Amino acid sequence: MSTPSSAATLLAPVSGRRRTTDLIMRGLLGLGTVIALIPLVLVIYYLFSRGLKGIGSGFFTTDPTGNFLGDPGGVKSAIIGTLEIVGLASVIAIPLGIGVALYLVEFGKKTVFAQIVRYLVDVMTGVPSIVFGLFVYITLVTTKFGGASFTGYKGSFALALLMLPVVTRSAEVVLGLVPEALREAALALGVPRWKVTLKIVLPTALPGLITGSLLAVARGMGETAPLLFTAATVNGTTYNLGQRMNSLPAQIYADISQPNNDIVNRAWAAALTLVVLILVITLIARVAARRSRVS
Amino acid sequence: MEAGAARLKPAGRRDTLSRRSPAARRADGVFRGGLTALAGLVLVLLAFFFVFLVVKARPALAHQGVLSFVTSNDWNPSKDVFGAWPLLAGTLITSATALVIGVPVAVATALFITEISPPRLRQPLTILVELLAAVPSVVYGLWGVFVLIPKLRGTEQSFSDTLHFLPFIGGNVAGPNYFIAGLLLAIMILPIVSAISREVIATVPAEHKEAALAVGATRWEMIRIAVLPYSRSGITGAALLGLGRAVGETIAVVLVIGNSPVVGKQLFDQGYSLAAVIANEFGEAANDPLHAGALIAAGLLLFILTLAINGVARGLVIRAEGRQGTRLPPPAVTAAALNDPEAATS
């Protein structure tokens, strides 16, 4: 965007009052931006100043003890739980989400059915995460599906529901950016449609697909509400997704209301761990985006 | 594009038109059918969940009466009385507070980044604002409980005492209260509202802006006469999407709103919200089907509320973007913006 400031000088000079208004409004807009960044700075400051205090020996290697007095223990079970629950959720949501996006871009296009699906995916992005938790709670948890009520994999289902629309919408945008000429060239050579999609469209869009998927993973990782209803909280470490499973957000949530400084410090440390995990994933997503071939 | 084309191997003989076997054609059909089924699954899942929610909420709604559930000001699960008005009111008060604080800041940020800041600063500022969205809600809640509530209490009290003549302000400040919840929500909706406003502002034709500047408008006058009128409906849509997010936010709110099922008399009173009540009471409701049903009904109300808000918001944003012939990517993609804000809108 160029500023034709030289043109302005040809006209009558801008009056002092207008100039002042301009300066004040520019200042206000700048001030708004500064205000927007204050909470970010504060949250990061407190996360580090309080969180680092809570990371003592055994923070990553021991489970919460569950004792209200004495050593509260670490968050090993919560870290493992978060990784497993989010891992399974990603395994469900990413292929499903990209599949739906492929349908919309390659086959559905402007058909009525595709428009309905598109609308529903939009709707799903706006559904509060707690409602997804409630969905899984009433269908799988209260009915004791699979024998147990609260289990890790039910938490994964809730997170997958949440991540699915994010994956689909980002994938749809990226797949739409793959040049039509590329598809046509392959089709003209007689390559079947499915091969065009799998061997040409997907590889071309891959970096963008990775970015969108990783951002969905980052989003799922920080969610608390759906997990409270589905995976619950426990102290001990389990690798079995068929059991109740701890997670970082749920552990932080449980720790906040404990009237014990050591436990609260653990919550800060766990929060720092969670934010660092999410930032690492976001960073990888950005690096992947940089390698994008379509834009 | 070159790289993509390079992957295109020369078609093997099996792939030539003349050799296309029925099996190959069947593979195409199966592929297409499979993807269509996946898309259909989304539809079926949503319908299934909606029906299930209604079925599970029905006993409680029948017990209390639908109208009374929404309007009655008495939430007392131990007596099987479920008037959800205090919860709905809390949701509305905190969300409105979030909009009043968050939207002006978000729009100012969007305008500053797109129209005023030096081009060099645009990308870093965008990334910083979007980092706000990377912080999980439970972390905002933690920060709210141990930092905002104790540190802001004095300021809130003097604000309340000085401006007690205003409606809904004045009296003693409670530790956890509507305002703190609203403030946290404002911070949480800021990145979305800002990102979408930025997208919408980016669709203002350069000709409009240049025309304003050409007749001697200052930068602010250009924003006022060219940018804002053009993007007004889109910005409204962005604000509504923020509202949808605020209405459904649970964990940050449940930690700082006080969880008392009454309609507060003022902004600094304790309250409750629809999402908070579900998170807070579902444990004790596990063995009380009526109570559980009431919580599911609260979830249903929340679901319908967010559907309505998002429906209107999407409409506004899509219309604003439609003038450019593109569909707006979701906030998450905007966050990446495929690392290139132009890519998403061009």
TrEMBL record, chain A:
<dbReference type="InterPro" id="IPR000515">
    <property type="entry name" value="MetI-like"/>
</dbReference>
<dbReference type="InterPro" id="IPR051408">
    <property type="entry name" value="Phosphate_transprt_permease"/>
</dbReference>
<feature type="domain" description="ABC transmembrane type-1">
    <location>
        <begin position="79"/>
        <end position="285"/>
    </location>
</feature>
<feature type="transmembrane region" description="Helical">
    <location>
        <begin position="267"/>
        <end position="289"/>
    </location>
</feature>
<protein>
    <recommendedName>
        <fullName>Phosphate transport system permease protein PstA</fullName>
    </recommendedName>
</protein>
<feature type="transmembrane region" description="Helical">
    <location>
        <begin position="158"/>
        <end position="179"/>
    </location>
</feature>
<keyword id="KW-0472">Membrane</keyword>
<keyword id="KW-0592">Phosphate transport</keyword>
<dbReference type="InterPro" id="IPR005672">
    <property type="entry name" value="Phosphate_PstA"/>
</dbReference>
<keyword id="KW-0812">Transmembrane</keyword>
<feature type="transmembrane region" description="Helical">
    <location>
        <begin position="200"/>
        <end position="218"/>
    </location>
</feature>
<feature type="transmembrane region" description="Helical">
    <location>
        <begin position="78"/>
        <end position="104"/>
    </location>
</feature>
<dbReference type="InterPro" id="IPR035906">
    <property type="entry name" value="MetI-like_sf"/>
</dbReference>
<keyword id="KW-1003">Cell membrane</keyword>
<dbReference type="Pfam" id="PF00528">
    <property type="entry name" value="BPD_transp_1"/>
</dbReference>
<keyword id="KW-0813">Transport</keyword>
<comment type="similarity">
    <text>Belongs to the binding-protein-dependent transport system permease family. CysTW subfamily.</text>
</comment>
<comment type="function">
    <text>Part of the binding-protein-dependent transport system for phosphate; probably responsible for the translocation of the substrate across the membrane.</text>
</comment>
<feature type="transmembrane region" description="Helical">
    <location>
        <begin position="116"/>
        <end position="138"/>
    </location>
</feature>
<feature type="transmembrane region" description="Helical">
    <location>
        <begin position="27"/>
        <end position="48"/>
    </location>
</feature>
<keyword id="KW-1133">Transmembrane helix</keyword>
TrEMBL record, chain B:
<feature type="transmembrane region" description="Helical">
    <location>
        <begin position="238"/>
        <end position="258"/>
    </location>
</feature>
<feature type="transmembrane region" description="Helical">
    <location>
        <begin position="125"/>
        <end position="149"/>
    </location>
</feature>
<comment type="function">
    <text>Part of the binding-protein-dependent transport system for phosphate; probably responsible for the translocation of the substrate across the membrane.</text>
</comment>
<dbReference type="InterPro" id="IPR011864">
    <property type="entry name" value="Phosphate_PstC"/>
</dbReference>
<keyword id="KW-0592">Phosphate transport</keyword>
<dbReference type="InterPro" id="IPR051124">
    <property type="entry name" value="Phosphate_Transport_Permease"/>
</dbReference>
<dbReference type="InterPro" id="IPR035906">
    <property type="entry name" value="MetI-like_sf"/>
</dbReference>
<feature type="region of interest" description="Disordered">
    <location>
        <begin position="1"/>
        <end position="20"/>
    </location>
</feature>
<keyword id="KW-1133">Transmembrane helix</keyword>
<feature type="transmembrane region" description="Helical">
    <location>
        <begin position="290"/>
        <end position="313"/>
    </location>
</feature>
<feature type="domain" description="ABC transmembrane type-1">
    <location>
        <begin position="88"/>
        <end position="313"/>
    </location>
</feature>
<keyword id="KW-1003">Cell membrane</keyword>
<keyword id="KW-0812">Transmembrane</keyword>
<comment type="similarity">
    <text>Belongs to the binding-protein-dependent transport system permease family. CysTW subfamily.</text>
</comment>
<keyword id="KW-0472">Membrane</keyword>
<protein>
    <recommendedName>
        <fullName>Phosphate transport system permease protein</fullName>
    </recommendedName>
</protein>
<dbReference type="Pfam" id="PF00528">
    <property type="entry name" value="BPD_transp_1"/>
</dbReference>
<feature type="transmembrane region" description="Helical">
    <location>
        <begin position="29"/>
        <end position="55"/>
    </location>
</feature>
<feature type="transmembrane region" description="Helical">
    <location>
        <begin position="169"/>
        <end position="193"/>
    </location>
</feature>
<keyword id="KW-0813">Transport</keyword>
<dbReference type="InterPro" id="IPR000515">
    <property type="entry name" value="MetI-like"/>
</dbReference>
<feature type="transmembrane region" description="Helical">
    <location>
        <begin position="84"/>
        <end position="113"/>
    </location>
</feature>
